[in-house]
Amino acid sequence: MTLLSSHMNISELNSYTDSPLKEGDQVRLTANTMPTLRPSLSYATQLGLTITCIVIFSLLFLFVYVQLWMILYYKHKKRSYQTVFLLLCLIWAALRVTLFSFYFTDVIIANNLDPFSNWLLYSLPVVLQFTTLVLLVAFFSQVVIKAKYPQSARIYKNRVRVLCTLSVFVFTTVNAVCGVIAQMYKSDSCPTAINVLFARVAINGSLFVVHGIALSYWIFTLNKVANARTLLESRVSHLFMHSIP
User: Which of 2, 104, 129, 178 could crosslink 200 through cysteines, CB 3.0-4.6 Å?
Assistant: First the structure.
């Protein structure tokens, strides 16, 4: 027997019972009287969004794949920011296509994966996005430092690389550890799982914001330093000259 409370009002309960109810009445809530949860979107809408996402991610995968083959064909420098950036995009697109492909067969499988597969399909794409952001910060900082401090450019660039590597390591470690802990307490609504979720969101969000501000700073400085803009333009023109057969 359950006493009526403010969580479910009289009008809601009357829609699931045969006789009208009053405040203070006691009713027995069973599986037949409780409301059924329904998806917020219709099946057709979900299917359309799934197909659209898979098509977009597949096109991105093919585009990046062609770009990587062009690097090999025209014998560009393989150890470069461009190659790493394209590899990150390729892996990210492949993981997204794999994840969304589950929605064509069985959604339950996608929601009940083992810890490693869950981290691979859900957490690793976020790590790749953060790594891409850090890569952009490292690239623009290198251009500005080389133009602004030519004599001690190597020292400053090494410091930036160390900081960027440390940021990626911290971000990846936090995601991996929190992902494992969340899987351990997945079936329990205990405070530990909630605290781990809050810590993960706070650390990840803070790192994203800090590196976003750093990227804005380097781009702003790039526009102020004439030598840096010239150096960047020369790199871009050199890249396009080698990309055109």
Answer: 178
